[in-house]
Specification:
Rossmann fold, six-stranded mixed β-sheet, five-stranded antiparallel β-sheet, binds adenosine-5'-triphosphate, single chain, 18 strands, OB fold (Dihydrolipoamide Acetyltransferase, E2P), about 350 residues, alpha+beta, binds magnesium ion, about 25% helix
């Protein structure tokens, strides 16, 4: 069995691409093949038309930052960052200036003479980043670089990484299994599952138009209803548990016939007034189970005819939304996304 299979991605110059996927889905393996630490059994790795597949890691001009910072403990920050320059025979007389420049970029200027043990986790991670950038690589690879940091430091470093990416403009491949991180940082996201690529697209496309059910469930909160296209009525899909619903007619045409999954994000489900409403033809009785009030929004978890259903309401909790209550909810045609079942 292969760790990854049939992966094909074109990465644009200057792009920030994120590999996102569950544990064991092949993110690190793919990254290590780009870096040259793993050799693919088939296929090729190219950079600007040049075949890198058989080249050693240090012959690739690719910077790598791992999750465990792997700094040299006995070397100062300055020496740690100078190390890749020495490996690459960078002119000695320009070394100090280059190290200073890159330490300033990552905000570590004042720490040049310290040892790694004297630094916080976030600072150590910046040293690792400086070391990955100092020799002006064509590509920067980062494997869960923020995984060991606490939440607030992590968010701070995300902003920092984006700033550095903007300033340097370097092509970046970033690995994470944190979907929020992927959504906020990336130009495009490559979603991995079981060693295969499920979708490569900009964050909002991955969110609003997932190509597979896996992507729809992995990214964001979702309601997914199994159903079948009703070929006799344009814009009609019959859901297994909930019966017929109206969907966007264009999307209905594109998806063709047969089995289909209907994805409705919880923020698209809304409470409805009793009685017919032509704008809201898809209506259900929802039995409310649990309510999670976040202050700025309310997540309502329940079911409709035995089918799990989630609704998210912006703002305060309406009076009618109570645990144990039965309410009418609905969504508009076009609020859904159709995924043809394979
Ligand atoms: N050196 C190896 N030899 C054989 N199989 C490996 C090796 N390294 C990883 N694998 C397998 O390849 C698959 C992909 O692993 P990989 O480390 O790429 O996943 P990942 O997406 O980076 O996961 P995580 O989020 O846990 O880091 C897994 O099934 C793993 O067990
Ligand atoms: Mg990994």
């Amino acid at each position: 069995m292969n760790a990854v299979d049939d992966i094909s991605i074109d990465i644009a110059k200057g792009e920030f691409l994120t590999f996102l996927g569950p544990s064991g889905s092949g993110k690190t393996t793919t990254l290590m093949m780009i870096a040259g630490f793993e050799e693919p059994s088939a296929g090729a790795i190219e950079l600007e038309g040049e075949d890198l597949t058989r080249r050693k890691p240090y012959e690739r001009n690719i910077g790598v930052v791992f999750q465990n910072y792997a700094l040299f403990p006995h070397m100062t920050v300055e020496r740690n960052v100078a190390f890749p320059l020495r490996m690459r025979r960078f002119p000695r007389n320009r070394e100090a200036a280059r190290v200073r420049e890159i330490l300033d970029l990552v905000g570590l200027g004042p720490f040049a003479g310290k040892h790694p043990r004297e630094l916080s986790g976030g600072q150590q991670q910046r040293v690792a980043l400086a070391r990955g950038l100092v020799f002006n690589p064509d590509v920067l690879l980062l494997d869960e670089p923020l995984g060991a940091l606490d939440k607030s430091l992590r968010e701070q470093m995300q902003v920092e990484l984006k700033r550095i990416h903007r300033e340097v403009g370097i092509t970046t491949v970033y690995v994470t299994h944190d979907q929020t991180e992927a959504m906020t940082m990336s130009d495009r996201i490559a979603v991995f599952s079981h060693g295969k690529l499920e979708q490569v697209a900009p964050p909002l496309e991955v969110y609003h138009r997932p190509r597979t059910r896996f992507v729809g469930e992995f990214i964001g909160d979702s309601n997914i209803f199994a159903g079948a296209v009703d070929e006799s009525q344009p814009g009609c899909v019959t859901l297994e548990a909930l019966g017929p619903v109206r969907v966007d007619v264009e999307a209905w045409r594109r998806v063709g016939k047969g089995a289909v999954d209907v994805l409705v994000r919880p923020e698209r489900v809304q409470p409805a007034a009793p009685g017919a409403d032509p704008a809201l033809p898809n209506r259900l009785v929802m039995e409310i189970g649990v309510i999670v009030n976040y202050g700025d929004r309310v997540l309502v978890i329940g079911s409709a005819r035995g089918q799990r259903l989630r609704m998210r309401i912006a703002g305060a909790q309406p009076d009618a939304i109570r645990e144990g209550a039965k309410i009418i909810v609905g969504w508009r045609p076009g609020d859904e996304h159709l995924i043809a079942r394979e």
